[in-house]
Design brief:
Elements (H helix, E strand, L loop, with lengths): L1 E4 L8 H15 L11 E4 L2 E4 L3 H9 L3 H12 L7 H13 L5 H16 L7 H11 L5 H7 L5 H14 L11
Parallel strand pairs: 1-3
Antiparallel strand pairs: 2-3
Helix pairs in contact: 1-3, 2-3, 2-4, 3-4, 3-5, 4-6, 5-6
Length: about 180
């Protein structure tokens, strides 16, 4: 049988993610934990095991705080993953639609602001900026304004967007209904 496992090794292996999830569930006291199991597909002699992050993202969408913690760890990670840009964008989108505790908000802000300051704007960064807007960044604006790498056209684009949001410009603020 041909096996294609799209999960990483080490911290992001299926067993490692499941163990961290179980630890978070125990610490938080979640009464009904999810079963984080990667999706599999078998066709003939081939078997594909898809990233466990798909299950984590679904958990974030249901409001599972342990999954949200793993999701924040995932967007903090610089390592490359199979389907990484897509998974990270979907993780940021799910986090944006969740209610997050303050400690996760602080970590999200720090990660995204540091990426912007360093000119690190990968494909999924568009969703990261939307997440940053959702969790708020006003108190970090002076830090962003002073140190952003404006020479990179992508970084300048995101900086200009955040400046417009910070200044409540009509181009980015939806009208009151």
């Amino acid at each position: 049988m041909i096996l294609k496992d799209y999960n990483s090794n080490g911290k992001w292996a299926v067993e490692a993610v499941q163990a961290r999830y179980a630890n978070y569930v125990a610490n938080i006291g979640i009464a009904q934990p999810l079963q984080l199991i990667p999706r599999e597909h078998v066709q003939g002699e081939a078997r594909w095991i898809f990233p466990i992050m798909d299950a984590v993202i679904e958990g974030i969408k249901t409001g599972d705080l342990a999954c949200s913690r793993i999701g924040v760890e995932f967007i903090e990670e610089d390592q490359f993953f199979a389907f990484g840009a897509n998974l990270k964008a979907r993780t940021a989108r799910a986090l944006r639609q969740s209610t997050l505790p303050q400690d996760l908000v602080v970590r999200i802000r720090a990660r995204i602001v540091n990426m912007l300051r360093n000119g690190n704007t990968p494909r999924e960064f568009r969703e990261y900026i939307k997440l940053l807007r959702r969790v708020g960044f006003s108190e970090l604006w002076p830090k962003i304004e002073v140190s952003s790498a404006h020479s990179n056209k992508h970084t300048a684009h995101y900086y200009n967007y955040l400046r417009a949001v910070h200044q409540h410009l009509p181009s980015v603020v939806s009208p009151k209904k």
